[in-house]
Fold this protein.
Amino acid sequence: MKTTELAIVGAGPAGVCAALEAASYGVKVTLIDRDDEIGGQLVKQTHKFFGWHEKSAGTRGIVISRNLAGSVEENASICFMGSTEALGYYKDDGVLLLETPQGIEKLKSGRLLIATGACEKMILFPGNDLPGVYGAGAVQTLMNVHGVKPGDSVLMIGSGNIGLIVSYQLVQAGVKLAALVEALPGIGGYAVHASKIRRLGIPIFTGYSIKEAYGTDCVEGAIIWQLDDNWQGIAGTEKDLNVDVVCLATGLTPLCEFLWQAGAGMAYVPALGGFVPLYDENMKTTVDGIYVAGDVAGIEEASTAMAEGRLAGLAIANSLGKVSAGEFLEKRRVSLEELEQLRAGPTGKAIVEGLAGLRGQMGKRVSV
Amino acid sequence: MESSEIRIKQHPILDFPERRKVRFYWEGKELLGYEGEPVASALHAAGIKVLHKSMKEGRSRGFFCAIGNCSSCLVIVDGVPNVRACTEKLRAGMRVEMQKGVGPALISKE
């Protein structure tokens, strides 16, 4: 069986930043991803990032992921295992089961960082399983990574930053946006993204949701309707849209299966996207040796994921006795301050409250 | 065959250089796609969206997440069932078929 000091599941922004930070203290890292490329979902983000960190603010996601990949390749302390799916975690032995291109392998590690990210939330409506109903991430992957348009005309559901950015990117790719609907009374994402959408003349319906998607074998159209104060559709307000794609940008939820398997304490925190692991100021879960960073620890942005990754990498190096006490405390202070800055906005406020709730529950186990 | 419009040719930020085209088969029908792109993307570019039929009701299924997470796009590739069309890379001569429900049992070549 292979062994390593630190195994990281997920080579997205959180996992890679943790790997680089830990490796900078001489920790031997095995970085695992089911994709063959480093960068996670950054590889399809053509927009420029905000963020506080001098290295990433104002840079496109595709450029950040290329830079991160370059840094990993140059680093002799990091072994990247691409096209490798982590299938499960055996908590009694601390062993990860991996499916590599060469076959099944086991990996035992001193420390484990789960940086698996998130997946899209589904919403309920008739026809939501028809081909043509795609997650916003899928639409980005298809058009921004593989250069294929998802369809001719799109109904976008959700006006958070993802809904706004993907709408804009669809127009850049030459696809028609039939409408963008938002169940809330106002647009959810940043004003800078929303004003781009408005300038493009995309019809925006706030206080609306999808009633149904229809079609024999694939989406041939969709009906939207206005919602009343109790989120119920109002008969007579329906609009029938001629679309072949319904794109869901209705939020993400953490991919935390490994943490359930590991027996980590979990809590349901809506502001963080659903079930999230309990973790402390070192990004450590309630299970000794298991850490988290990025969206799996609560849905936020890539800039936050990178900052959390650096913090987790530092804390892991420290737990292995590779950082002096003074340096650790000083760098952790800077890291926590950076996270505080990234969460300064109104969305950040709900996240900070959610995280405070998590801290309050540390040590307690939630069972479902 | 492939609509010329569905592949993005011009983009303000991204470049999509020409790649090697290969022949493959969908339900026995010959199609063209780019070597190394996901099977789902080659099929989508060829206008094929229904990849799978659901287990209980036989409802049509396509890809949903496109990153190997959700198992909505399971197909049969060269006789092997439960292959995710969204992450499987296209190879020349590949035979891809729609999977109905759990698909056929895989008989090992001993």
